[in-house]
From TrEMBL:
Protein name per its UniProtKB record: Creatinase/prolidase-like protein
Matching InterPro entries: Creatin/AminoP/Spt16_N (IPR029149), Creatinase_N (IPR000587)
UniProt superkingdom: Bacteria
TM segment ranges: none
All copies of domain Creatinase N-terminal, residue ranges: 21-156
Pfam families xref list: Creatinase_N
Length: 357
């Protein structure tokens, strides 16, 4: 059992913050006419349940049940021997063992007096595993189960000061890890070893990275599967989790003189970050030579970061104060270029900020 991976400090994230988040969800449930809300969680999709309870299931799956007037209930496909650990790191009501997760949910709803046919919202419905979704829909009635993702997205942001502080800690870990990579790093294996050693020693729970090994040949970032030599210019994207709070940091690195166009791209990116923190995504300046594609990502559901907006389309509206990651790719005359950085969005008379870590 990986007890040491995540502890809960009430000084960093008071229980009152989690209570207020659940209250925001309940207000949304009332507006939507939902008798209950379920939020799925797994190692790959931990964000919604962690935001509500501080719990992340590192090796299994679980479902959180939120009712209008009771403490949230966690149904976990884990043996009771880990329930003590779950209670230690989380803020919720009952913890119930549910090896068959869908049946456990149905039994708990019946025990709480919620009858089939009542409107049931599910955060993460579109990615709910079939082994959970199909029995649940068959027994409850598919028409009564609704996607609660839009409602949850509307209450998930803006972030609070406690979340911002923990994201800043994660960013500091990422910055130190990148700064510790040797200038003469020869390949992705040495790069990964340097990143892992620094980030893990600083308390990172998860460290994910993608690399574009040679920006003179292409700018596509990929997960490391095998060892690749690094060119004179490469790009690194680093995603770090600290106490369940994820941050993403990325940049282009040159061993020697920066390729042509990089300085203009950096200036455009810095100006864009400032504008995003000032008044949101409207009015970003034109990209260098019109070559850059940009994205805004934020936590709006079960995944730590989801695509919210691109230079071409908005997917999820983000209110002022939202914690987001701004990323840009450009194909320049001197080769490809990439950078990403976190910030809180401005807008509506509210000023955001670029995170420094």
């Amino acid at each position: 059992m990986r007890r040491g991976l995540m502890s809960w400090s009430r000084e960093e994230l008071p229980a009152s913050v989690l209570d207020e988040r659940v209250a925001r969800l309940r207000a949304g449930m009332k507006r939507e006419g939902l008798a209950a809300v379920l939020a799925y969680t797994s190692f790959a999709e931990p964000a919604a349940v962690h935001w509500l309870t501080n719990f992340t299931p590192y090796w299994s799956e679980a479902m959180l049940l939120v009712l209008p007037d009771e403490a949230p209930v966690l149904l976990a496909s884990l043996t009771p021997r880990v329930h003590g650990w779950i209670r230690e790191v989380s803020h919720l009501g009952e913890v119930v063992s549910a090896p068959r997760l869908a049946q456990g949910v149905l039994d708990m709803l019946a025990g709480k007096g919620v009858q089939p046919g009542a409107r049931l919202g599910v955060v993460g419905l579109d990615s709910l595993p079939a082994a959970v979704a199909l029995p649940l829909m068959k027994a409850w009635g598919a028409a009564a189960i609704v996607d609660a993702a839009p409602m949850f997205a509307a209450i998930r942001q803006p972030c609070g000061k406690e979340e911002l502080a923990l994201a800043g800690r994660a960013l500091g870990i990422a910055r130190r890890a990148v700064a510790g990579v040797p200038d003469d790093v020869p390949d992705t294996s040495v790069l990964a070893a340097a990143i892992e050693a620094s980030a893990r020693a600083a308390g990172a729970e998860e460290v994910l990275y993608r690399v574009a090994p040679d920006l003179s040949r292409g700018g596509a970032l990929g997960r490391l599967e095998g060892e690749f030599a690094l060119g004179a210019a490469y790009a690194l994207e680093l995603s770090v989790a600290y106490k369940g709070h994820w941050i993403r940091l990325g940049g282009s690195h040159a061993r020697g003189a920066p390729p042509e166009g990089w300085e203009a791209a950096r200036a455009w990116f810095d100006d864009s970050l400032s504008r995003l923190a000032g008044r949101g995504a409207d009015g970003l300046p034109a990209a260098p030579a019109g070559a850059a594609r940009w994205t805004l990502e934020s936590c709006t559901g079960v995944q730590p970061l989801s695509l919210a907006r691109t230079d071409e389309q908005e997917f999820v509206p983000l209110p002022p104060g939202s914690l987001a990651v701004f990323s840009a790719h450009a194909a320049l005359e001197g080769g490809h270029w990439y950078r990403s950085a976190p910030l809180t969005l401005g807008g509506g008379g509210q000023r955001g900020q670029v995170l420094r870590g």
